[in-house]
Amino acid sequence: METQTAAGNGVEGVWHELVELVNGQFETPPFRRLLGVRFTQARAQALSIQMKHYVANRRDCWGFVAGASPLSVKRLVWEHEGEELMGDKTAGKVDHITLAVREGKIFGLDPEDFERVRPLDAATACFYAWIHLAKDRPWREAVAASAVLEMRNSDELVRGGSLSYRVGKNLERDLGIPLKHQINNAEHVTADIEHGQLLLAVAREHCHTQEDQQALLRGARESLVIDRAYREQLVNMMEALD
Predict the structure, then answer these.
(1) Cβ within 8 Å of residue 131, ≥6 positions away
(2) Closest CA to 96 of 213, 214, 184
(3) Cα separation of 133 and 230, whole Å?
(4) Measured in whole angstroms, how far is the alpha carbon of residue 120 from the centre of its chain?
(5) How far is CA 43 from CA 143, 163, 174, 203, 237, in A?
(6) Average pLDDT rounded to a whole number, residues 29-48
(7) Do residues 145 and 137 lie in contact, with contact meaning Cβ atoms separated by under 8 Å?
(8) Cβ-based neighbours of 60, under 8 Å, separated by 6 or more
């Protein structure tokens, strides 16, 4: 029998709390600043490069998460990660790191630019923090820490649109580049609707006690703290550019 949580009844209650957490992320100062900044070409280029490094860190973290998880969760992670790592050859899709680099062309970037420019120092610190959650925390917390970022990017769960959607529409507004031509942002607007449900599947199968459910909330909250710190550094970077 499921134990009640502070958020409500059992798994559905904790899922409701997780959904509210990701919606609340958009009301925090770092996210308000990020979504309020006006894009120039230089700012779009800088953000594009940094997001490629972010995508690479996500692949590292999900690998650690899968390694410590039960077999059924490994399968869920691989269903998510297969396309991210390998693409979908039957649909003519490339992996998401390649996708991020290809999108850079519309901002005037060459593939070499993505290798030449390293992550921001503060971003590197955030990447290590996310790796710590994925590698060193109990597996339920680790899953939640990575999955909550997929939830935060799900148009189905986030009222007003996911982060990729909102950034994409701002780029469309400021640089005149339609969202559908932003191949990385457009792909994640679609893909992360399905990916955003991963944590609910894990919770329903593996989190039937209050302790297990609180582990999900703990991992999610800590990851969102890092997410806010990361986004704030991106805003600082962009505001320093013309």
Answers:
(1) 57, 60, 61, 64
(2) 184
(3) 15
(4) 18
(5) 32, 17, 11, 39, 8
(6) 97
(7) yes
(8) 127, 131, 134
Fold annotation for 10-239: Heme Oxygenase; Chain A (1.20.910)
The DSSP symbol for 28 reads S
Evaluate if residue 210 carries a pLDDT over 70: yes
What whole-number distance in Å separates Cα of residue 54 and Cα of residue 97?
9
What share of the chain has pLDDT > 90, as a percent? 76
Report the alpha-carbon distance of residue 195 to residue 126 in Å, rounded: 22
- Tokens representing residue 112 in the block: 């070499």
Would you place residue 111 in the very low, low, confident or very high pLDDT band (cuts 50, 70, 90)?
very high
For residue 240, count CB atoms less than 10 angstroms from its CB and return exposed for 0-12, middle for 13-18, buried for 19 or more. Answer: exposed
- Rounded Cα gap, residues 112 and 117, in angstroms: 9
- At 67-92, the pLDDT tens digits run 999 999 999 999 888 877 776 655 55
| 242/234 Cα distance (integer angstroms) | 14
Q: Which amino acid is at 148?
A: V
3-state secondary structure of 197: coil
